């Protein structure tokens, strides 16, 4: 099926691992086909949600040696965590009271409690999360996936980035860098939910589809007569195909991006707000064969709670609890859950010690992320931070390991997905990365 | 196998999956290691590559002092080879092949066992640990008979220099030019065609030729009136006159300037933390002007690397320094540790060295940052010799003023910079300060502010326009306070750099001098003048001029003929492709040098060749023999880049504004009728229009555009206001009282620069009539017809 991925891959198709819609060209049997990544930009605090640290309250105000690493800003003593945890599901893993709905899925989730990254600034850390480096010169995870797998729906972009506004560093985070440009992410600002505003040039303001069809037929006949004289040419042919796809996309993308087509009940389940809409859009897209959808929580860095941390967290959690529950439930109901990897987390964690008395500073030494869905082990907590949740100490998971694991679940060996550029073969995980075997079901 | 070498060629494994070059490289024996490898096979080579790259340096740094026959063998454990490793020491085998995870070696370095912790002076970092784990998981590959203690990989420069692209230019004595008016280019190409028995196409029609020439040289299609004039021109030199005319138009420089800007990763907007960001366009305009005035290419290089140090340069030429002055910079958070910031600085050097190497030399020098280049004869010492030029060069917004005044203003700017740092430090400090201390700080900050204002006001020329440039100055990372780390610039200072082992700024190797690559300058003379930028460009142009010429003519050929002679335009090293016709490449290179590096002469010679003028028709037999058109038996259609395509639309609609130069503008704005060259390029956020059409990311050097096609791109063609607007302009300028056939003919002429065939006229008339019958307004029908012509492949390609 030459159409596969052709929409967004056409010319560089030869480079793709997947020539057709079978698994045999992958490195190994894939456990999932798509990825939804929920990005809590700004950086949530690990101790608030899935990694309870009673010692925080016990030693509030003190500054034990364990927390004496330098982060970015000046910090004081330990800041207590007022939120209660209780064991949930059959696994009995503790989840914060701030996430009552999401906690119902705990038996399907792997909580990575020992994630760490390289840099405590938003920009570099977001780059690390997306591109696997702190410098903005290499392709993003999504672009690697597109390069490796192509798209399953030639009528839609295969890699979509949803953000109701702009994350810090913006488009560098979904760049294809030196990979062929069609593999870069398609950024969609879903602060409006009108598909025509989300996708540039989606509809024609001046003519009907039937008239446009007639027009394309004329173009085709003009192209054909020229083609007869000059012979066929892959680039020329690709352009003809792409134009036809674009024509169809006017209808298909309008539908895919239109959450207004969902039932009232479904909309109510996801709830209101940008993040809810993002989750719902993600489901609609994955359902249609989009390979990779990223949903940024919000514009800028909403989780960046340098001040009044404990006051802000309940509201932040409230606005993700329902939507993520709805997303996971919806994926399960539609039989998509087993084919979709859901990844959740920020670009880094936050300090157990206080900043400005009641805030928390950036912390790249330790953070929590979780995964769920296709091929992911459920009801499992991986690794650990120290007593205060500051630093990952046991079974540490670097961002490279996370990337290796995501690629693995999609049937790709991160060591072998390479691209020759500037005299070197590059890969997403540079020379590092280990698949986290324990989180694989 | 008695070859000495071996693993450089093995290609780092997982990283380097390249099998192709192996045999070639092996034979060349480019890098000679002391050991030989008995066992072959890809996996083995991969493992060894990994060992060399990642593990050997770690062993040397952390282990060999106590566990090597050369030094000492503590606890009976030698790490001198795999056998020794498997045998182990007093405690048993260091590595277990059956159960790698439980290897004693890993236990020791993990520090998990209180009795066995290695190395004794401190636990390794996570990255190092994971490298060891990975290595042991692979079965601990090591070269059989070598001791790990020595890391000298001695590059065999003589063998390296024998690589074709580093050799003097050659010519084929069998080919003589001047026979029956056939130029040398065609003689060489014809020879190849003859050898391969491939038949070439006839000369293209004049309609096709003028459109091709116009698009290639000016990036614009010809007007129909020009086409007619050329078609009717009976003079024997009609074509040559056309070529000369196009070469002399200012649009030529705009077209070719953009090709250069891809290499220079040009951006209109520099990082937000730099001071001013509004003068980048002066570099773009300088490039355009340099090409229009045919500044010799050797000077073109010198100006861009070091014009500020050249005594005779004019003030306006300072803009040339934008090549370096607009380099990407990465954020240096003042509150981070200096060691972290040093890494950021090292990353910046790497990008700059990469861009210099690939742009001018077609070499990927950045590979030598952490280890001697795996494939090309470039040492780590070479790399840091170049880095030390950059360590003594800073980015600056330089005032466009005569030298004396300029230096005065630069002096004041430096003073202000010092004040501003103090201010910054106070700002951070005052956050936590209280009472008197805080007041003192606030007062001081006010004083500084005043001083700065005074300095600015009291310096004539301070407000002069500036350019993104570079300037000699020692650049160091300094921790001013525990909470404030920043770059420090010393205009009179000098930084002596050391090799940074494994690319890590905190592990110092041998000191290095500022100098050029040993490959080209075997005597390794050190540079004496300041940062050495002038001497660098001189050395490049004397010691590696053949390579420089080859790399440049290959790019020019690519832009004119659609595909390059060497298919890796920025890699002429051992991993790069071989030229499809070396005689051709070398002939062009020697012509470039012979013509005193005149690019216009080169362009003239290429477009005057028969090869350029051939029709793009397909001869089945030739296609079967040479489907890729490597022999140039026809002119292969070339997709227009976004610039030429958008400009072509503006041109055929008659709305193109040909004003030259100036600040960038917004491409999304539909009233923007200027050439696409002037559309704003933001390295951080490329405009949608550019992004959709395969415009390269401006974060790094881009050797060639990929002709990409995507549906999102075609949505722009189908539905954008821009395209629609051009259609309306075209239709509204028509005299619609003419009959349909004439209107259709006029539109074919205007848009496709040719007459419609009978068939095309028929289907066009049919479209118009059916549309009218369906009740669409007449003007709209014509707009849709024009739109269809703009959508054709023919309009988007050079035929």
Question: What descriptive keywords fit this protein?
Answer:
heterodimer; A: about 450 residues; alpha/beta; Alkaline Phosphatase, subunit A; 2 domains; 9-stranded mixed beta sheet; two-stranded antiparallel ribbon; about 30% helix; about 15% strand; globular; disordered N terminus; B: about 800 residues; mainly alpha; two-stranded antiparallel sheet; 33 helices; about 50% helix; about 5% strand
Write the layout of secondary structure elements.
The complex is a heterodimer of chains A (441) and B (799).
Chain A: H1 6-9, E1 34-39, H2 54-58, E2 85-88, E3 93-96, E4 109-116, H3 122-131, H4 141-149, E5 159-162, E6 186-188, H5 195-198, H6 209-230, H7 234-256, H8 264-270, H9 274-287, E7 292-296, H10 309-333, E8 340-345, E9 349-355, E10 359-363, E11 367-373, E12 380-382, E13 384-385, E14 392-394, E15 397-398, H11 399-409, E16 419-421, E17 424-426
Parallel strand pairs in A: 1-7, 1-8, 4-12, 4-15, 5-6, 5-7
Antiparallel strand pairs in A: 2-3, 4-11, 8-11, 9-10, 13-14, 16-17
Helix pairs in contact in A: 6-7, 9-10
Chain B: H1 7-10, H2 20-28, E1 31-32, H3 42-62, E2 67-68, E3 72-73, H4 82-87, H5 104-110, H6 126-137, E4 154-155, H7 157-161, H8 184-196, H9 206-218, H10 224-232, H11 238-248, H12 250-263, H13 281-292, H14 297-306, H15 322-325, H16 338-361, H17 380-390, E5 393-399, H18 403-432, H19 435-457, E6 466-472, E7 474-481, E8 484-490, E9 498-500, E10 508-511, H20 533-543, H21 545-561, H22 582-594, H23 599-608, H24 610-613, H25 620-625, E11 638-639, H26 642-652, H27 688-692, H28 711-719, H29 721-732, H30 740-752, H31 758-773, H32 778-791, H33 793-796, E12 797-798
Antiparallel strand pairs in B: 1-4, 2-3, 5-6, 7-8, 9-10, 11-12
């Amino acid at each position: 099926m030459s159409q596969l991925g052709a929409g967004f891959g056409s010319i560089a198709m030869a480079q793709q691992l997947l020539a057709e819609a079978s698994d045999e060209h992958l490195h190994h049997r894939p456990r999932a086909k798509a990825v939804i990544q929920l990005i809590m930009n700004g950086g949530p605090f690990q101790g608030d949600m899935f990694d309870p640290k009673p010692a925080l309250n016990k030693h509030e105000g003190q500054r034990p040696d364990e927390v004496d690493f330098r982060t970015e800003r000046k910090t004081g003593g330990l800041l207590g965590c007022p939120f209660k945890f209780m064991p949930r599901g059959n696994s009995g893993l503790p989840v914060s009271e701030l996430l009552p709905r999401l906690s119902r899925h705990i038996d399907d989730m792997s909580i990575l409690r020992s994630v760490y990254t390289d840099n405590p600034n938003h920009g570099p850390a977001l780059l690390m999360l997306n591109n696997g480096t702190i410098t903005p010169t290499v392709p993003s995870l999504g672009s690697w996936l597109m390069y490796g797998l192509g798209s399953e729906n030639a009528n839609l972009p295969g890699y979509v980035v949803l953000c109701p506004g702009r994350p810090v560093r913006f488009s560098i985070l979904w760049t294809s860098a030196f990979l062929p440009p069609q593999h870069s992410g398609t950024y969609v600002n879903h602060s409006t939910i009108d598909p025509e505003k989300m996708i540039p040039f989606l509809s024609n303001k001046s003519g009907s589809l039937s008239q446009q069809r007639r027009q394309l037929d004329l173009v085709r006949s003009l192209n054909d007569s020229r083609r007869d004289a000059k012979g066929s040419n892959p680039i020329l042919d690709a352009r003809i195909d792409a134009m036809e796809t674009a024509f169809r996309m006017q209808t298909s993308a309008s539908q895919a991006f239109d959450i207004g087509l969902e039932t009232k009940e479904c909309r109510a389940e996801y709830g209101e707000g940008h993040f809810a809409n993002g989750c719902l859009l993600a489901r609609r897209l994955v359902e249609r064969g989009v390979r990779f959808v990223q949903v940024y929580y919000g514009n800028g860095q909403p989780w960046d709670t340098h001040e009044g941390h404990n006051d802000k967290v309940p509201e932040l959690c409230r606005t993700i609890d329902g939507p993520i529950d709805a997303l996971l439930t919806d994926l399960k109901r539609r039989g998509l859950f087993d084919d979709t990897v859901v990844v959740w987390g920020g670009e880094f964690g936050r300090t157990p010690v206080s900043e400005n008395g009641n805030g928390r500073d950036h912390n790249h030494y330790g953070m929590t992320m979780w995964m769920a869905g296709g091929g992911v082990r459920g009801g499992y907590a991986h690794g650990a931070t120290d007593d205060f949740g500051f630093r990952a100490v046991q079974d540490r998971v670097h961002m490279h390991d996370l990337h290796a694991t995501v690629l693995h679940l999609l049937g790709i060996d991160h060591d072998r997905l390479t691209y020759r550029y500037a005299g070197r073969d590059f890969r997403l995980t540079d020379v590092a990365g280990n698949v986290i075997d324990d989180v694989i079901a | 196998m008695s070859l000495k070498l071996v693993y450089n060629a093995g290609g780092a494994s997982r990283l380097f999956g390249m099998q192709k070059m192996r045999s070639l490289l092996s034979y060349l024996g480019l890098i000679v290691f002391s050991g030989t490898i008995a066992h072959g096979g890809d996996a083995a080579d991969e493992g060894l590559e990994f060992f060399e790259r990642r593990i050997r340096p770690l062993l040397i740094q952390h282990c060999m002092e106590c566990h090597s026959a050369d030094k000492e063998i503590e606890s009976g454990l030698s790490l001198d080879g795999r056998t020794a490793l498997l045998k182990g020491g007093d405690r048993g085998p260091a590595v277990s092949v059956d159960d790698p995870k439980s290897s004693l070696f890993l236990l020791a370095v993990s520090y998990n066992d209180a009795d066995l912790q290695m190395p004794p002076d401190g636990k390794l970092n996570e990255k190092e640990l994971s490298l060891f784990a990975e290595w042991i998981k692979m079965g601990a590959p090591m070269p059989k008979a070598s001791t790990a203690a020595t890391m000298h990989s001695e590059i065999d420069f003589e063998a390296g220099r024998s690589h074709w692209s580093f050799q003097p230019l050659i010519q084929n004595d069998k080919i003589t030019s001047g026979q029956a008016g056939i130029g040398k280019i065609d003689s060489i190409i014809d020879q190849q065609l003859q050898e391969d028995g491939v038949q070439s196409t006839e000369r293209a029609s004049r309609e096709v030729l003028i459109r091709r020439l116009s698009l290639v040289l000016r990036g614009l299609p010809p007007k129909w009136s020009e086409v007619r004039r050329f078609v009717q021109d009976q003079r024997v030199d009609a074509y040559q006159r056309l070529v000369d005319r196009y070469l002399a138009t200012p649009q030529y420089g705009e077209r070719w300037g953009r090709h250069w800007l891809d290499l220079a990763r040009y951006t209109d907007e520099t990082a937000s933390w730099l001071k001013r960001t509004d003068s980048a366009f002066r570099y773009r305009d300088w490039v355009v002007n340099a090409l229009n005035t045919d500044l010799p290419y050797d000077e073109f290089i010198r100006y861009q690397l070091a014009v500020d140090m050249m005594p005779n340069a004019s003030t306006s030429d300072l803009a040339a320094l934008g090549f370096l002055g607009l380099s990407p910079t990465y954020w240096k958070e003042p509150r981070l540790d200096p060691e972290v910031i040093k890494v950021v600085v090292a990353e910046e050097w790497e990008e700059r060295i990469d861009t210099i190497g690939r742009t001018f030399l077609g070499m990927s020098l950045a590979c030598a940052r952490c280890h001697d280049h795996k494939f090309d004869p470039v040492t780590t010492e070479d790399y840091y010799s170049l880095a030390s030029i950059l360590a003594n060069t800073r980015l600056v917004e330089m005032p466009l003023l005569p030298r004396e005044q300029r230096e005065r203003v630069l002096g004041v700017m430096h003073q202000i910079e010092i004040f501003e740092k103090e201010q910054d430090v106070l700002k951070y400090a005052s956050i936590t300060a209280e009472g008197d201390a805080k007041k003192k700080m606030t007062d001081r900050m006010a004083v500084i502010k005043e001083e700065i204002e005074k300095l600015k006001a009291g310096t004539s020329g301070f407000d002069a326009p500036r350019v993104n440039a570079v300037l000699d100055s020692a650049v160091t990372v300094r921790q001013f306070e525990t909470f404030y780390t920043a770059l420090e610039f010393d205009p009179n200072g000098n930084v002596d750099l050391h090799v940074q082992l494994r690319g890590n700024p905190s592990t110092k190797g041998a000191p290095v001098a500022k100098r050029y690559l040993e490959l080209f300058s075997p005597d390794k003379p050190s540079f004496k003048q300041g940062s050495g930028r002038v001497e660098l460009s001189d050395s490049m142009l004397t010691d590696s001029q053949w390579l420089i010429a080859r790399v440049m003519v290959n790019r020019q050929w690519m832009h004119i003929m659609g595909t390059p002679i060497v298919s890796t335009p920025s890699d002429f090293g051992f991993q790069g492709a071989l030229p499809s016709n070396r005689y051709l490449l070398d002939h062009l290179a020697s012509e470039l040098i012979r013509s005193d590096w005149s690019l216009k002469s080169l362009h003239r010679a290429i477009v005057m060749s028969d090869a350029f003028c051939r029709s793009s028709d397909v001869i089945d037999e030739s296609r079967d023999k040479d489907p890729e058109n490597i022999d140039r038996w026809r002119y292969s259609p070339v997709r227009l880049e976004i610039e030429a395509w958008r400009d072509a639309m503006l041109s055929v609609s008659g709305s193109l504004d040909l004003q030259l130069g100036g600040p960038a503008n917004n491409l999304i704005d539909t009233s923007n009728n200027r050439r696409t060259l002037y559309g704003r390029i933001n390295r951080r956020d490329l405009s949608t229009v550019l992004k959709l059409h395969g415009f390269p990311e401006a974060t790094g050097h881009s050797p060639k555009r990929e002709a990409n096609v995507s549906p999102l791109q075609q949505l722009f063609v189908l539905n954008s206001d821009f395209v629609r607007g051009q259609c309306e302009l075209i239709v509204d300028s028509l005299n619609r009282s003419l009959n349909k056939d004439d209107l259709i003919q006029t539109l074919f002429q205007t848009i496709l620069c040719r007459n419609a065939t009978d068939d095309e006229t028929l289907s066009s008339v049919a479209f118009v009539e059916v549309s009218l019958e369906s009740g669409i307004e007449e003007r709209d029908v014509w707009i849709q017809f024009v739109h269809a012509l703009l959508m054709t492949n023919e309009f988007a390609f050079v035929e």
